[in-house]
Every structure is written in structure tokens, then in C-alpha cells.
Amino acid sequence: MNREKTGLSAHSLNIFRECERCFYLQVKHNISRPRGPMPSIATGIDSLIKEYFEYFRKKGKLPPFLEKEIKDGKLMTNLKKTYYYEIKNNKNYYLWGHLDEVIQLPNELYIPLDHKTRASLPTGEPHDAYKFQLSIYSLLLTKENNGNEVEFGYLIYYYPEKELIDYNSNEIKNIINFSFEVKKVDLDINKTKQIIEDAIRCLKSDKLPKTGENCEYCKWIEKTKIYYIENSIKEEKNEKVEIKIVEKENEEYKETLF
User: Pick from 35, 164, 179, 198: CA 20 to 30 A from residue 6's CA?
Assistant: First the structure.
């Protein structure tokens, strides 16, 4: 992909949905939100899940636990590391992303699937950020779907199952057990496209956009800037005053030498 173009991902666009200013600073000025250490256990579980899926990809079928959930589907044979999507009417921008998995249906449609590890089974509708992420992944599969935009995707939640714990076991592998739930998620592709257009319009502006109403990062800056900015100004003024006093004392001392 041309480096002169600007790439947008599901992650960066979800930031736009949260806070236009944080998005603008990250994409246009390469100033990202501060990040803490990533929990390595989630990364380890994700790697194991993907290795498990790769094992069944080579066999040309779905993992057994998915066969009843997604009938007649199979794992995409050649899953690429990165997918791209050219944005019409905005040739200087494109979408990109790493898909967890893709399901190939008998009608030759390719459906995005995403793995989510959670502390417990979520209730109700999937989080809007998850839906939006799948919508972006659907657009990334437009080429594979011969120009069609698939309006649904799959989420698989993996979570520790307390009912499966064997407290009397001498082996840890029998103590920590995971269960799963597959959710078919309807996607609003037109709404996603509008968000992409709004994000690009934001980036084209030379004006710093407004902060997100619930952006914790911008709220922190607003609350603490008095300590960082105003105190710095005071310290600078004090330093200048001290320098002038020292200079004056030096001048007076020189006068006493003659």
C-alpha cells in the first residue's frame, strides 16, 4: 500500500467515535494516547486459539465446537495477514486490518469472525465497538466477496467457566476451564461508511477538533494542565527574576572593586 496515503483501521476509527481530537492527534500528528502494559495472558490465550484454528484449517473444516453453530461453513483456505480496502471518492485514504478469522459459506461468501476473551459471558447486545470492528472487517473482505458487502459477522466469546472447575484436582489444567458462545451480529455498513467519511473530513481540516464528551484522556489533560502549564510559566518567571538579581548583585560587586 502507498505510504503517501493515510491508513485507517478499526482501532483508530473507534477512537474517532470516542474522541475526534484524540483521533486527529494520533492519525495526523502521530501523537497517540498513553498506554499501559498489555495483559500478556490475553495475548497468550489469543495465540492458542489461533493455533487451534490453524490446525483445522489444514484439515479443511471447522473446529468441532463451531460445526453446530455455523452449519456448512469452513475456514477460509488462504487467510492473509493484512487486508486492505480502497475508499471511493477519497483516494488518499484506505482501510487496513488484521482479521482473526474468516468463514467461507457454501454460497462463496466470506464472513468475518472475531475472537473475544472476557472475564464472564456478556449479556445483551454486543458492544458497539465490536459491531463497528466487524463492519470494517466486512469492508476489508469486499474484494473476496466480488464487490458485495456482507451485512453480518460472527463473534466468539471465550470466558472462564466456574461450573467446570474441579477443586479437588491436582492438575491446574483441570481447574481453569473455558467455555464459549458464538454470536451472529448484524452490521450496518452504510452507517460505518458515514463514520469513515466523517473521520476523513476531520483529518482534512486544519482546525483542532472538539474533545469527546466522555474522553477520559482529554478530561485528565483539562484537569491537570494548570499544574503543567501555569506552574511551568511561574517557574520560568522565577528563574528570570533570580537571574536578574544575580546579575544586579554582580554589577554592584564590580563597582566596589574601583
Answer: 35
**3-class state of residue 84 by DSSP:** strand
Q: Is residue 1 part of a domain?
A: no
How many Å apart are CA 33 and CA 149, to the nearest integer? 32
Which among 165, 180, 204 is the end of a domain? Answer: 204
Share of the chain above pLDDT 70, in %: 85
**Domain around 100:** 6-204
Q: Are residues 190 and 220 in the same domain?
A: no
Question: pLDDT, tens digit, for every residue of 151-201?
Answer: 999 999 999 887 767 777 777 666 678 889 999 999 999 999 999 999 999
Q: The domain spanning residue 141 has which CATH number?
A: 3.90.320
Residue 64 lies in a domain: yes
Identify each DSSP E strand in 151-192 by its residue range: 152-160, 178-186
Contact yes or no for 113/100 (Cβ under 8 A): yes
* Residue labelled with grid coordinates 493484512: 82
Could you give the CA distance from residue 225 to residue 137 in angstroms, rounded to a whole number?
38
Residue with cell 470466558: 159
d(CA 174, CA 233): 60
